[in-house]
Amino acid sequence: MKLAIIAEYNPSFEPHAHTDAAIAHAASALNLDVQSEWISSQDATITTLAAFDALWLAPGSPYLNLSRTLDAIRFAREHDIATLGTCGGYQHMVIEFARNVMGIHDAQHAEYDPYASRLIVSRLPCSLVGRELEISLSPGSRTAAAYGTHAIIERYYCNFGVNPDYVDQISNAGFQVVGRDADGDCRVMELAQHRFFVGTLFVPQARSRPDRPHPLITAFLIAAAR
C-alpha cells in the first residue's frame, strides 16, 4: 500500500517523527506493507497523488502551497481515497470542504490571512500545544468504532481550530462533528459516506507505541488497504 503524507517534512519536528513511527506501529500489527512518502505541498499535484492509495495531511502548517494542498484534499474526497488529517492537516480539510462543498469560496485559515472576512479556521482562545485532554466521541461514528470507546484522551500541538461560528453549518453540510472536548468544542470531524475521511485537531500519532498501535491510524490503514 502506498501512502502519501503531505507536509513540509522536518525530522526535528516531533509530530513528524511521531507520524513515521505510528505508521510503522500500525503496519506491523496489521502485517501490512506500507510504503509511505513525504510530499511537500509544492509537489502535491493530482498526477503525483494518483499513484497513492491513501493520503495523510500531517501537522506543520502553514504549508508552502495552499492551493495544491486543497486540490489534493478535494481529489481524495471526490475519489473515495482514504484520508486522515491531523492538527493543521485537519484544518485544511475543513477549508477545502467549506470552499468546494459549501460554496464559501473565500473560506480562509488565519495562519495565511488573519484579517480575512471568512475565517473558517481561527486562532484558539488559548494554545493547546503540549496539552492532553479528554474528548467525547459520538456513538455510531467511524471514529468511535475505531477506538472502541466513546471517551478518549489525546495530545495537541495546535494554536488554531475550526471557528465556532461555522461549526454547526459545516457539520450540517456533511462534514460531521463526531468528537468534542469537555467545553463542547469541535475536535473530530468525519464524512460518513466515504471510505475514510477523518480529521482530528489533536495528534493521535503522538500516543502510538510499538506494542499499542494507535487505533485510529490502524483503522485508517485498514480502510486504505481494502
Give keywords.
12 strands; 226 residues; nine-stranded mixed β-sheet; 33% helix; alpha/beta; 7 helices; 25% strand; three-stranded mixed β-sheet; single chain; globular
- Return the structural class: alpha/beta
Fraction of residues in helices? 25-40%
Number of strands: 12
User: What is Rg?
Assistant: 16 Å
Work out the oligomeric state of the chains in this entry. Answer: single chain
In short:
By secondary structure, the chain is α/β, with parallel strands linked by helices. Helix content is 33%, strand content 25%.
Structure, explained:
The chain is an alpha/beta fold and 226 residues long. The protein has 7 helices and 12 strands. Helices cover 33% and strands 25% of the residues. Strands 2-1-3-4-12-11-10-7-8 form a 9-stranded mixed sheet, with helices on both faces. The N and C termini lie close together (10 Å). The mean pLDDT is 96.
Topology (SSEs and partners):
Blueprint: E1 2-6, H1 14-30, E2 35-39, H2 46-49, E3 54-57, H3 66-78, E4 82-86, H4 88-100, E5 108-109, E6 119-123, E7 132-137, H5 142-147, E8 151-155, E9 160-162, H6 164-173, E10 175-181, E11 186-191, E12 197-200, H7 215-225
Parallel strand pairs: 1-2, 1-3, 3-4, 4-12, 5-6
Antiparallel strand pairs: 6-9, 7-8, 7-10, 10-11, 11-12
